[in-house]
Amino acid sequence: MGRVTVRRSVVRLSADGRRTRPDALAAEEPLELRVGGRALAVTMRTPGHDVELAHGFLLTEGVIGGREDVSIARYCDGADEDGRNTYNVLDVALADEVPAPEVGVERNFYTTSSCGVCGKAALDAVRLRTRFSPAADDVTVSAEVLHSLPGLLREKQKVFESTGGLHAAGLFTASGEALVVREDVGRHNAVDKVLGWALLADRVPLRGMVLMVSGRASFELVQKAVMAGVPILAAVSAPSSLAVELADEAGVSLVGFLRGDSMNVYTHAQRIEH
């Protein structure tokens, strides 16, 4: 698995006694995202699929709307003590006609792995800025399909299987077909990687799709779904109040506590057939 996991020694205490054993940890490293050579954000992420992460981030911040808006993405700078590239600095060059990001996107150059939109008064901003509103999407999904998604997502969490320490996001069709699953220490990074994959595959806007996440449904995840035109966001855990408010206003069907044979549908329940 390369840099996505790190092996460390751990002292295991149990009813059987005390012993030292190797353990696999989910890797967490900083990624500095630059646009046109200018530092835009730093996020703590699990290395891998960084180009997807960058495209997804720029999509959900309203900077780009299609793969043609980026002319090139390349690693630069970032060397370790031995002079080797750390692959922790990614520079994106926008196409000539694409304006540079607004200053407000910069997020003070630092984003933790648990927080993506801190400080943004973003309800109005998201509603006004999205190019791909999901409100008119008339897709319907059966409750049976939705109940199958947590298990399908879990089956594809290869790094979680060995570390137990990663979030996951997956993009599914209305019939339950998994198009892509990504893992990351940050839930917003996992979603950005999924949406970046979709952008690079010319699938945005994501009409008729379900975005499934392994944890809670926060405001930032609803924001990202709205910006990519995703009509249904499902989570195994709870949503926040602001997530429900944004989903309601933006036309996203928000499903929480999707476990076993039950779920809570917080907004736009007409898309869920039971």
Model description:
It is a single chain. The protein has helices spanning 50-60, 122-129, 143-155, 158-163, 187-200, 219-228, 241-250, and strands spanning 5-14, 17-26, 29-35, 38-45, 70-75, 89-94, 141-142, 167-173, 178-184, 209-213, 232-235, 253-259, 262-265, 272-273. Strand 8 and strand 9 form a beta hairpin. With 274 residues, it is α/β, with parallel strands linked by helices. It is flat, with a radius of gyration of 19 Å. It contains 7 helices and 14 strands. Helix content is 26%, strand content 31%. A 6-stranded mixed beta sheet has the order 9-8-10-11-12-13, with helices on both faces. It has a 4-stranded mixed beta sheet with strand order 4-3-6-5, covered by helices on one side. A two-stranded antiparallel sheet has the order 1-2. Helix 1 packs across helix 5, helix 5 (187-200) runs parallel beside helix 6 (219-228) and helix 6 (219-228) packs parallel to helix 7.
In short:
The chain has helices spanning 50-60, 122-129, 143-155, 158-163, 187-200, 219-228, 241-250; strands at 5-14, 17-26, 29-35, 38-45, 70-75, 89-94, 141-142, 167-173, 178-184, 209-213, 232-235, 253-259, 262-265, 272-273.
